[in-house]
């Protein structure tokens, strides 16, 4: 019997009461599920805290839902819009493309371009066989005729490839010529490798053609076990300019195309100029046919655009400077940006819904075989009323969505200093290809994943989830500790998401006197960063309730907030690195990597920024002399003694996982006060590599003073202020002892002051000689 | 990066790596004492003596297909030690029937496995 499994996602994650939201659910082993709307209050199961807490909410959609298994098309490819079948060649033709395979000998067939139905054996294509050899093939429904190159394709090298078929003579040719230069590939001129192959053969028949077969790049038509049409024989690698003629070109004509010129011949049916349509602010998913038929191609699972092309000469590092050298489009057979499941249910949310984090809880099965899924979304207020907003760092959730670092990343265990603790959902996620990868993972061809999406089940954006490499609740499950704290504190609050901040800018924040961040608000678009800076500079009061914040650039395309882009530079702190020339985001043209390198270190915004990270034991903070200053002594009011946060759900201390520190050289505002600092961190905490110029022995917790967290405060223009907690683990110290503890006391003092009307406490103390208690 | 599963049979540096690994293991075997094992049992996570830390650094750097992990059968209640496959999509396999009642006990069980591998090969 198929075990019962339920998985789902929503069409959008930020909604208002009364709005509709679509749930896309796929089920295995059952055709019904019990749905119940719940508000999520606490997400960490650690028995040292309140445990998992949810609250059932009345909703017309509660009850039994019909569910079914859904099909997921994994892999990125392009489909040509050819309604008149101009590419359904029945006679002579030529195909050509510049290609850069990233996994030629993958053990599976790959189609580069063609109009091929592999299931029905109809059509034609150029691709790569199981062993990594270029191949040209045609079929008429029975047998497949193939012409295979003499030498294998080399990984990460550029080639010009072409195939011709002369219907009169039935002569087929296949051309493969290396077009590597000093910069554009893995190997240099010195490598003794044969890149060239020219072969011809007589085919017995002409290609067949089905009306239903699409012309695809990086894949071909097939059918799954249920006879649903799908795309398979997916290609790993880059394709640059490519096209088709309805004539068999001569070798000299092919040589002309290889030089970069496309002859304006009448027989040119389509020429996809992959570098056309670029703007400084991004590249869309449409690949333009600049020929007379305008047979444009549309990307699925977002092929990566703006990549270095066959003719890139290494002089420019960005597609904005020389678009014609950045015509590479990169494809991966394991890419996934949208499951495209049918909507299972469209739900109108109750009008009186309190702003917060919600989930549709789906259950099916009995006893130990019960399957439970929380499909999470966030409800912002219809109209802002509260003085406090909690901002869920959903962009960071997206960056980490379904990460598999503990299974695949050889350095992860060394980084966290502890072996992975895997849950069953981690193992299941690892075994499935249909949930996609995170921007922390690499595609199977070794290339980093630069797109992540929430149009798929996101297993680590669930309550109770624990990050295996650190064995702590992380992301949403950790941030709910702040929600639970706000709930019990009696403060009125509303919630927002990064999506709202990116879309609405500082207007998303301006209705609130006080905004509280999540525990790891790491990924920020430029618009989000600007909005936060403007909010604070305009008199907003901001609580940075975490660490490792505002660190990494990210991109979101307008109108498609479910996909985020992340490119990673060698000057960052990263699980992989983008190739040179590919550091700029196709989404918006921004440079990828850390904000610090762009002159926007976290310290400039909130006084502190990433100093180090690690795993294992967390530490408490100790009050620093500034905390006794009359301007800020109200922050620690009610704290007994010197220690703050000596317990927590994340390794038993408020300072842990990732730590932020004060650094004037990186832009900490000059009048910032350090309220408390942590210390005594273990050697699994290492100074962040963005802070050092060389690697050397001794950049660890017990050797280097920079391994610590600073809790800071500064006042900003127009009555604004920033309180920064300095550690990712801080939020998880709040629930200890039923929320009665020193970390909780400090946060309550600050929230009360920030949300209050009028000036901030301590404002009257202006004479230096009277400021020390 | 090359494909995660590319054919490594032609990589000559595997010989260099193996030679380095052999020397390293030979030295690391001299560090294994009852005191080191007891230190780990008391505190699998945290600040360690240099002797223990050197062993742990080695274990954390093992190739993925030789790496162990802890499986949480039931978080905070039941754990076991598993071995990673090192191959995408292939789940870790259970290597013994030992059940631990805390993550730290399982981490120590995993450590003892690593010590056994070090001493026996």
How would you describe this protein?
The complex is a heterodimer of chains A (773) and B (121). Chain A is mainly beta and 773 residues long. Helices cover 11% and strands 30% of the residues of chain A. The longest helix of chain A has 14 residues, at 476-489. The radius of gyration of chain A is 28 Å and the shape is globular. In chain A, helix 7 (498-504) crosses helix 8 (526-537). In chain A, strands 33-28-34-36-47-46-44-41-42 form a nine-stranded mixed sheet, with helices on both faces. An eight-stranded antiparallel sheet of chain A has the order 12-11-10-9-16-7-22-21, with no helix packed on it. In chain A, strands 8, 13, 14, 15, 19, 20, 23 and 24 form an eight-stranded antiparallel sheet that branches. Chain B is of the alpha+beta class and 121 residues long. In chain B, 45% of the residues lie in helices and 12% in strands. Chain B has helices spanning 13-29, 34-42, 50-60, 103-120, and strands spanning 68-74, 78-83, 93-94. In chain B, strands 1-2-3 form a three-stranded antiparallel sheet. The radius of gyration of chain B is 16 Å and the shape is flat. The model of chain B has no long low-confidence stretch (mean pLDDT 96). The interface between A and B is large, with 48 and 41 residues.
Overall pLDDT of chain A: 96
Number of strands of chain B: 3
What letter string, H or E per element, gives the SSE order of chain B?
HHHEEEH
**Class of secondary structure makeup of chain A:** mainly beta
User: What ranges of chain A have pLDDT less than 50 throughout 5 or more consecutive residues?
Assistant: none
Spatial gap, N to C terminus of chain B: 30 Å
Secondary structure: elements and pairs:
The complex is a heterodimer of chains A (773) and B (121).
Chain A (H helix, E strand, L loop, with lengths): L4 E6 L3 E2 L4 E9 L3 E11 L10 E4 L6 E4 L10 E4 L12 E9 L8 E8 L4 E7 L5 E7 L3 E5 L10 E8 L4 E8 L18 E6 L13 E2 L2 E4 L5 E4 L4 E9 L5 H8 L9 E5 L13 E2 L9 E4 L3 E4 L20 E4 L13 E4 L7 E9 L6 E9 L8 E5 L1 H7 L4 H4 L3 H5 L4 E2 L1 H8 L19 E3 L12 E2 L4 E2 L2 H14 L3 E5 H7 L9 E3 L6 E2 L1 H12 L3 E4 L7 E2 L1 E3 L2 E6 L36 H5 L1 E6 L7 E3 L19 E2 L13 E5 L10 E6 L7 E2 L22 E7 L3 E5 L17 H14 L18
Parallel strand pairs in A: 2-27, 28-33, 28-34, 34-36, 35-37, 36-47
Antiparallel strand pairs in A: 1-3, 3-25, 4-5, 4-6, 4-26, 7-16, 7-22, 8-13, 8-19, 9-10, 9-16, 10-11, 11-12, 13-14, 14-15, 17-18, 19-20, 19-24, 21-22, 23-24, 26-27, 30-39, 31-32, 38-39, 40-43, 40-45, 41-42, 41-44, 44-46, 46-47
Helix pairs in contact in A: 7-8
Chain B lengths: L12 H17 L4 H9 L7 H11 L7 E7 L3 E6 L9 E2 L8 H18 L1
Antiparallel strand pairs in B: 1-2, 2-3
């Amino acid at each position: 019997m198929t075990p019962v499994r339920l998985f789902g996602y929503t069409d959008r994650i930020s909604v208002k009461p009364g709005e509709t939201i679509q749930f896309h659910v796929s089920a295995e082993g059952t055709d019904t599920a019990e749905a119940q709307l719940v508000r999520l209050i606490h997400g960490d199961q650690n028995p040292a805290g309140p445990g998992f807490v949810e609250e059932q909410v009345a909703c017309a959609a509660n009850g039994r839902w019909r569910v079914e298994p859904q099909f997921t098309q994994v892999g990125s490819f392009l489909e040509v819009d050819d309604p008149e079948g101009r590419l359904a060649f029945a006679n002579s033709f030529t195909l050509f493309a510049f290609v850069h395979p990233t996994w030629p000998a993958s053990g599976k067939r790959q189609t580069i371009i063609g109009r091929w139905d592999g299931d029905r054996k109809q059509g034609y294509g150029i691709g790569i066989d199981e062993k990594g050899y270029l191949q040209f093939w045609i079929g008429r429904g029975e047998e497949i005729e193939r012409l295979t190159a003499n030498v294998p394709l080399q990984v990460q090298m550029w080639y010009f490839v072409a195939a011709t078929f002369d219907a009169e003579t039935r002569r087929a040719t296949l051309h493969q010529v290396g077009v590597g230069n000093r910069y554009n590939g893995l190997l240099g001129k010195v490598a003794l490798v044969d890149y060239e192959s020219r072969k011809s053969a007589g085919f017995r028949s002409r290609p067949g053609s089905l009306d239903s077969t699409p012309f695809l790049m990086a894949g071909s038509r097939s059918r799954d076990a249920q006879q649903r049409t799908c795309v398979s024989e997916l290609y790993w690698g880059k394709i640059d300019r490519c096209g088709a003629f309805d004539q068999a070109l001569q070798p000299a004509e092919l040589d002309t195309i290889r030089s970069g010129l496309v002859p304006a011949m009448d027989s040119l049916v389509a020429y996809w100029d992959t570098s056309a349509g670029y703007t400084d602010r991004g590249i869309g998913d449409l690949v333009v046919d600049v020929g007379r038929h305008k047979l444009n191609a549309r990307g699925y699972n977002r092929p990566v655009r703006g990549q270095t092309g066959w003719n890139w000469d290494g002089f420019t590092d960005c597609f904005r400077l020389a678009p014609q050298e950045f015509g590479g489009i990169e494809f991966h057979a394991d890419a996934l940006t949208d499951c495209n499941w049918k909507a299972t249910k469209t739900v109108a949310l109750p009008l009186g819904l309190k702003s917060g984090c919600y989930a549709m809880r789906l259950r099916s099965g009995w006893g130990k075989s019960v399957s439970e899924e929380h499909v999470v979304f966030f409800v912002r207020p219809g109209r802002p009323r509260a003085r406090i907003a909690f901002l869920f760092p959903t962009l960071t959730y997206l960056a980490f969505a379904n990460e598999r670092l503990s299974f695949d990343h050889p350095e992860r265990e060394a980084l966290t200093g502890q072996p992975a603790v895997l849950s069953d959902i981690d193992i299941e996620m690892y075994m499935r290809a249909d949930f996609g990868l995170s921007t922390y993972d690499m595609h199977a061809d070794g290339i980093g994943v630069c797109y992540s999406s929430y149009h798929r089940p996101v297993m680590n954006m669930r309550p109770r989830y624990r990050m295996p490499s650190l064995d702590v609740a992380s992301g949403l499950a950790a941030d709910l500790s702040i929600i639970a704290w706000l709930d019990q504190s009696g403060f009125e609050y509303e919630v927002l998401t990064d999506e709202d901040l990116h879309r609405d800018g500082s207007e998303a924040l301006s209705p609130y006197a006080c905004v509280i961040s999540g525990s790891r608000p790491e990924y920020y678009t430029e618009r989000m960063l600007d909005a936060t800076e403007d909010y604070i500079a305009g008199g907003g009061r901001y609580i940075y309730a975490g660490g490792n914040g505002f660190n990494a650039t990210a991109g979101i395309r307008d109108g498609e907030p479910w996909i985020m882009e992340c490119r990673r530079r060698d000057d960052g702190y990263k699980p992989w690195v983008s190739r040179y020339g590919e550091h700029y985001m196709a989404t918006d043209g921004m440079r990828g990597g850390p904000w610090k390198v762009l002159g926007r270190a976290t310290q400039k915004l909130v006084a502190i920024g990433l100093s180090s990270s690690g795993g294992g034991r967390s530490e408490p903070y100790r009050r620093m002399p500034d905390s006794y200053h009359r301007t800020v002594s109200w922050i620690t009011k009610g704290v007994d003694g010197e220690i703050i946060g000596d317990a927590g759900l994340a390794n038993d201390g408020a300072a842990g996982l990732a730590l932020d520190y004060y650094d004037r050289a990186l832009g900490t505002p000059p009048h910032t006060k350090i309220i408390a600092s942590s210390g005594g961190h273990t050697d699994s905490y290492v100074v962040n590599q963005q802070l050092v110029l060389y690697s050397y022995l001794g950049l660890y917790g017990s050797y280097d003073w920079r391994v610590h967290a600073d809790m800071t405060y500064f006042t900003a223009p127009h009555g604004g202020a920033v309180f920064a907690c300095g550690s990712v683990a801080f939020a998880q110290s709040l629930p200890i002892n039923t929320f009665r503890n020193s970390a909780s006391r400090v946060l309550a003092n600050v929230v009360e002051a920030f949300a209050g009307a009028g000036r901030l406490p301590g404002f009257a103390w202006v004479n230096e000689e009277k400021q020390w208690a | 990066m090359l494909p995660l599963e590319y054919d490594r049979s032609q990589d000559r540096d595997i010989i260099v790596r193996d030679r380095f690994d052999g020397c390293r293991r030979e030295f690391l075997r001299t560090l294994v004492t009852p005191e080191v094992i007891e230190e780990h049992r008391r505190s699998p996570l945290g600040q360690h003596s240099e002797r223990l830390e050197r062993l742990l650094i080695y274990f954390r750097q093992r190739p993925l297909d030789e790496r162990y992990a802890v499986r949480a059968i039931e978080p905070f209640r039941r754990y076991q030690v598993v071995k990673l496959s090192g191959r995408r999509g292939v789940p870790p396999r259970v290597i013994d029937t030992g059940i631990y009642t805390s993550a730290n006990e399982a981490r120590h069980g995993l450590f003892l496995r690593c010590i056994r591998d070090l001493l026996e090969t």
